[in-house]
Amino acid sequence: MTAQLDQLKAELLELALEAAHRAGALLNDGRPADLGVSATKSSAVDVVTEMDLASEKLINGYIADHRPDDGFLGEEGASFEGSSGVRWVVDPLDGTVNYLYGLPGWAVSVAAEFEGETVVGVVEAPPRRETFRAVLGHGAFCNAQPLHCRPAPPLDQALVGTGFNYVAERRAAQADLVRQLIPRVRDIRRSGSAAVDLCDVAAGRLDAFYERGLHPWDLAAGDLIAREAGARTGGRPGLEADGDLAVAASPGVFEILQPLLDRLGAWHD
Predict the structure, then answer these.
(1) Which fold is adopted by the domain 2-138?
(2) What is the CATH number of domain 155-263?
(3) pLDDT by residue (tens digit) across 98-139?
């Protein structure tokens, strides 16, 4: 069974890498050069939406051609059950506002679950020329380099990433949380892509990341990559990362930051 599972993981990784690479190329090459100039116009937003949908359709179609019995969950609405025990969880364009404005913090996130557990994760970040990948139990890599999270500093020396919701009321609550948190850490960064932030924890570029309001497709690949690089991930104490709260950090930072975020109410508006 172990050999069969390893073979399955290898197959899923190969498909995830190719699907993410193709979608990343589509988005990178297909973005109009003047898109950001029209960032306040509905036509520009429509272009981004069309690219998002095209990316998901490409990924869905590529995977279905090779594994037609798998399930699929995508941000843009593609969702169906499979019969193979494998489900793909896909964010075809994470960081849409960055993409709209021509900022480099966007990526394609492709994860594969087997019997409910994420076993493969790929985050393709074309503007950074980086492909992050992980297989459960086999470590995490960026391009060909193995990833390791940073040794844990004291919390007041930790660089922490976060994100904000689109809903104004929730953003206000998140801003108040940042006001309480920022005197306790080195500084806070906001990249605009949860998938990229999770990979940056894995790569040692952030000591920690947290956010409320994420969906499975935001988390699946990046969470596995962070864990396989030695980071700890979770939600509220004792729970896995979910829509209420997602935290990823070097183990020593996680032990302090997770309960602190819980006490500060990072999980509610």
Answers:
(1) Fructose-1,6-Bisphosphatase; Chain A, domain 1 (3.30.540)
(2) 3.40.190.80
(3) 999 999 999 999 999 999 999 999 999 999 999 999 999 999
